[in-house]
Write a structure and sequence with these properties.
heterodimer; A: mainly alpha; 2 domains; two-stranded antiparallel ribbon; B: mainly alpha; 3 helices; about 0% strand
Chain lengths: ~600, ~100
Amino acid sequence: MNMTALIMSSSLILVLATLMFPLLTTLSPKPQEPEWAGTHVKTAVSTAFFISLLPLMIFLDQGMESITTNWHWMNTQVFDANISFKFDHYSLIFTPIALYVTWSILEFALWYMHSDPNMNRFFKYLLLFLVAMIMLVTANNMFQLFIGWEGVGIMSFLLIGWWHGRADANTAALQAVIYNRVGDIGLILAMAWFAMNLNSWEIQQIFFLSKDFDMTVPLIGLILAATGKSAQFGLHPWLPSAMEGPTPVSALLHSSTMVVAGIFLLIRLHPLMENNQLALTICLCLGALTTLFTATCALTQNDIKKIVAFSTSSQLGLMMVTIGLNQPQLAFLHICTHAFFKAMLFLCSGSIIHSLNDEQDIRKMGGLNKLMPATSAYLTIGSLALTGTPFLAGFFSKDAIIEALNTSYLNAWALTLTLIATSFTAVYSFRVVYFVTMGSPRFLPLSPINENNPLVINPIKRLAWGSIVAGLIITSNFLPSSTPIMTMPTTLKMAALIVTIIGLLVAMELAAMTNKQIKITPMASSHHFSNMLGYFPALVHRLSPKANLTLGQSVATKLDQTWFQATGPKGLTLTQMMMAKMVSDIQRGMIKTYLTIFLLTVALAVLLVLI
Amino acid sequence: MTPVHFSFSSAFILGLMGLAFHRTHLLSALLCLEGIILSLFIALALWALQFESTSFSTAPILLLAFSACEASAGLALLVATARTHGTDRLQNLNLLQC
C-alpha cells in the first residue's frame, strides 16, 4: 500500500484510539487516582492533537484525503451499514482544531473544577463528548453521523446539568435535550428518506444517486436538524440557558464544537443543496433572522456568559447565512476561526468569574484592566477577533462572508439584517469590555483575584495565538472551490468595517451615558424586548403549555364529562336510579309500609265494589 | 245508612287508618287495634239488637274475651320488642335484614 496513505489512515485511527483509551480504562473496577484527570485525560488529548497534525501536514503538502472503511456492521439483503471514516479536508482541518481547543479547555478545567469532588467524572464526560464529536465529523455514513449526533446531545445534557442540585441547571439541561430532539426529528426524516429512496446511507452514494430526485423533503429535514442543534431561531432558547453548566462546558460544547455540528452537517451534505433554491433561501433567511435576533438579545443582557452565548448564536446564524449563499467553505472557515476566539472568550469569562468569587453580573465587575491585566488583554483580543478587526482570525472569515453577501444576487432583507447584526456585534462586545475592564471596580474589595496560575494563563495564551494567526494560516492553505468575486465598489468592500466602526462609536456614546441621567422616564419597551429575549421563552415555555393544559382541562371537564357523559349515560343513570330508589324505598321491610299498602288496597276494593 | 251504622263504621275505618299510619310508637298501633275491636263490639251488639236474634246475643261477649287474649298477646309482643330493641319506636323494627 502507498506509504503516505498508510501513514495517514493509521495516524487518524491512532488519534481515535488515544482518545478512547482513558475511557476504556475507567471500565476496570479499580478506581482512578485523584490526579487521573490531569495525567491521563489531558495528556491523551494533547497527544492526540500532535498525532493529528501529521495527517494535516500530509494533506497540506499533497492534498490527500482518505476514506477508511473498517467493519461491516450490519448487512441485510438490500441495505448495509459499515463503520467508515471520511478524512477529507473538512474533517482533517477540524480535528486538529477541535483537539487543540479541547486541550486548552481541559487544562483550564483542571484549575476551574479543582474543588469539585467529581472532577474525574467531569473529565470523563468531556472526553466522551470529544470522541462523539470526532465521530460525527469523520463519519462517512449517516448512521455513524447519527451516533455522533446523539452522543454529543446526551453529553450536552449530562454536562449542562452537572450541578444537578440546582433547579435551573436541570431545567436548562432538559431544555437542551428537548430542543435537540425536535431537531433530531428532521435528521431522522432525512435518514429515512435516504434509506427508502436511495437505499443507502453512505454519503458518496447519496451524492451520486441524488441527481435525479427532488431533494426538498430530506433537505427540509436536514435544515430542521441544524436548527435544533445549532440553535437557529425557533429552536434557540436552549443555548443561553445552557450557560448553567460550568464554564469549561460552555467553552467546549456551546461555543466551538457541539453547536457547529448542525452547520457541519449542512456543509457535509452541501452538494445536495446546491441546486435546490428553496433550501438555500430557507437557510439564508433563517440564518439572517437568527443572527439579528440573538444579537439584539445580547445587547441588554447582564450575565457575561449569556452575552457570549448569544454572540455564539449570532455567529451560528452567520454561518447559516453563508450556507444559504452556496459557500460551504466560507462557513467552514468561520467555524474554525470562531472556535478559537469564542473558546478564549469563555475561558477569560471563567477566569474572571472565579476571581470575583463566582460573580457573573457585569454590572458588578469593573476596573479589571489594572487588576487582571492578562485576562483583560486576552478578552480584548477575543472581542476584536469576534468583531472582525482586520487581519485577526475573525476578519478572514467574517469579511469574506460579508463580501460574498454584498456581491451575490440575493434577498436584500437578509443582507440588511446581517449587516445590522454585524454592527450589533461590535456594540455588545464593546459593552462587555467596557463594563468588565474599564471604569472603577464595582465588586467587593476582598475578591480572590489571582490569574497567576499557569493552568489558567497558558490555555488562554495558546488560544490567543490561535485567534491571531489561525485565520491567516487556514486561508493561505485552503483553496476555495469557487472563485470569490474580487472586484466591487469601495463602499461594498469596506461595508463590514464601516458598520462595525459605526457600532463601536454608538456603543462608546451609550457607554458614556451610563453615569448620567438624560431622561427621567426612559423608553423601556425596546429594552424589555431585548432583555426578555424577545419574549420568546415567556411565550413558548410558559404561555403555550399553560394554554394547552387549560384547553385540555376544559375539554376534559366541559366536553367529555359534561356533554358526553352527563347528557348521555350518566344522565340516564341518574333518572333511572332516582326511580329505582323510590320503588325500593317502599320495600324496605317496614311494617308501616305494608299496612299502608294494605289499607290502600282495601279502600280501592271498596270503591270498586261500590262504584 | 243510619247514624249508628255510620258511627261504628267510621270508628272502624278510623282505627284501621290509625293502625296503618301510626308514626312513632307501636303502642299507638295497639291502641288503635283496641279501638277497632271496640267498634266491632258495638257493631255486634247492635246487630243482635237490630235483627232481633237472641241466639246471637252472646257474640259480643265472645268477641270481648278473644279481644282480651289478643290485647294481651299484643302487649306481650310490645314487651318483647322493648326487651330486644330497647324501645318500641317503629324505626327500630325492620323485617328485612338489610
